[in-house]
Amino acid sequence: MKKRRSILIGLSLLGLASHVPAEVEYPTFSWTTGKLHMPIVDVQPWGAFDANMDWLRENQGPMVFALEEIKEASATTPVSATFSIENNTLHIPAVEVSGGSEGIEHYKAILEMMPNTEPLQFVLTDAVLLGPLKIGGLFPFTGIGSEFYKEKPHNGALLAIKHLTEAGFEVEMLSVDSKINPVDGVAAARQLVEENNVQVIVGPSSDDVTTAVAEQVTFRCFQHSRKPSLIKWLV
């Protein structure tokens, strides 16, 4: 989980959101067939290769893949995976996974080549589900003093979301009303975290609400390993 911090929204989201590279032919994996295909694997200094692997279903523990076929790739870009000769590690920034109960998903994956195997085998050492960064916006739409803020904080967040999306980052935001009140702000923040599963809370504009949310929502989520970042407006 990310540590709590107070930073500009644009910079914070750049560090947390998944970047979706344009015009990339993703490596693909099917739970149904057990086939992993990587169209352009960069292996320096040897070049780019097209590789196919089979999932060894009978293996207990971490997923293990056997290299079925490898050939010189017809192109060298865009690279879909890289293999490091120094540490025998295969890095896949985004693999498209199909055939599961959740439909099509994308994962960032790392596989390590196992020594003395024929055919070559690779064990999955890390896999992280990619997807939109879910942001909860806690804004002062109503309450005493809301006329001072008007729509500025909300419009600023929408503009940041627009810029990040245009730059290729996957982000989405759900906005709720803090009412500039600690009790209502905490209730709204809990809704964002517990019901909407947001990863980041932006706002609120009131120091009292910010303190209450940090102490009663984000810190408690941190204790249970579910803590979103709390990003206070710096405008």
Structure overview:
The strands form two sheets. Strands 2, 3, 4, 5, 6, 7, 8 and 9 form an eight-stranded mixed β-sheet that branches. The protein has a five-stranded mixed β-sheet with strand order 1-11-10-12-13, sandwiched between helices. With 235 residues, the chain is an alpha/beta fold. It has helices at 9-16, 146-149, 152-166, 182-195, 207-223, and strands at residues 18-19, 28-30, 35-43, 47-55, 64-72, 81-84, 89-100, 103-114, 121-130, 133-139, 169-177, 200-202, 229-231. The model is unreliable at 1-16, 221-228 and 231-235 (pLDDT under 50). A hairpin with a 6-residue loop joins strand 8 (103-114) and strand 9 (121-130). The chain is 25% helix and 39% strand. Helix 1 runs parallel beside helix 3 and helix 4 (182-195) packs parallel to helix 5 (207-223).
Strand content: 35-45%
**Radius of gyration, taken over Cα atoms and rounded to an integer in Å:** 22 Å
Extract low-pLDDT stretches: 1-16, 221-228, 231-235
Count of DSSP helices? 5
Order of helices and strands: HEEEEEEEEEEHHEHEHE
| Oligomer kind | single chain
Helix content: 10-25%
Overall 3D form: elongated
